[in-house]
Amino acid sequence: MQTYYEDDTVQLYLGDMREILPALAAQADLIVADPPYAETALAWDRWPDGWPTLAATAASSMWCFGSMRMFLDRAGEFDGWKLSQDVVWEKNNGSGFARDRFRRVHEHVTHWYRGDWTNIHHDTPRTTYTGPDKSARGRDSRTPHTGTVGAHTYVDDGTRLTRSVIQAAAVRYQRRHPTEKPIELLNPLIHYGCPENGLVLDPFAGSGSTLEAAQRAGRRAVGIEAREDYCEAAARRLAAIPLDLFTGGVA
Ligand SMILES: C[S@@+](CC[C@H](N)C(=O)[O-])C[C@H]1O[C@@H](n2cnc3c(N)ncnc32)[C@H](O)[C@@H]1O
Known about the structure:
Elements: E1 5-6, E2 10-14, H1 17-24, E3 30-33, H2 51-55, E4 61-66, H3 68-73, E5 82-90, E6 106-113, E7 126-128, E8 136-137, E9 153-154, E10 159-161, E11 165-167, H4 183-193, E12 199-202, H5 209-216, E13 220-225, H6 228-239
Parallel strand pairs: 2-13, 3-4, 3-12, 5-11, 12-13
Antiparallel strand pairs: 1-2, 4-6, 5-6, 7-10, 8-9
Helix pairs in contact: 4-5
The protein binds S-adenosylmethionine (SAM).
Residues 16-18, 34, 36, 44, 48, 177, 179-181, 204, 206-207, 209, 224-227, 230 line the site of S-adenosylmethionine (SAM).
């Protein structure tokens, strides 16, 4: 099958994921899916029936973007997937304002897996903590009914688990795609679910944000996008990334 764009670490295919994915027969470490939510009048915003089941043939771990309404409406389509957690993307400004609702400035990203959790790569990124040092020596024992614990020492290394609410400005200035996702949002999701040099698959690649984020994080990536104009936008941005990033490891 012909790629629309290809370099050392990224491949992009133009076409319907329901046809391309089975033909690729790829096994990825992680899927990052930003599907059509089917909530707007945009021509491409149509839910491809059955795509989560198809995605399950290509990976056992998946981040999926969506609104609460989308996940509730399509819950049955995620049969066979188990939900591990949800992350909230807080934007600087929102979309779809209605005068009779709260001003909506967030979206959900849910993590799903199949099979045994211990076989799923999950490595929570840590962020720098600037508060007071919490280093402490543990107690030797507790009250009898809670059992006895050994002495321990906690050394505060100045980092904390990344929080489940991630603030990132929506990407508007480039006008590559109406629902383009920011790299700084995708970066911790990819670090969490895909090992270094592992393979990330994005079946709804749009302007190629996931592909760029994966490449910058030192992961390989395969994308599928149904529209040629978005493939072109993705190819342009990927071709503009400096070559020294292709060897990976840059967060
Ligand atoms: C929500 S957008 C993805 C935006 C992308 N994450 C970005 O940052 O640019 C969903 C994309 O899926 C594409 N799409 C819709 N149906 C598809 C299908 N059956 N196969 C492949 N792509 C499809 C749309 O053209 C659209 O670009």
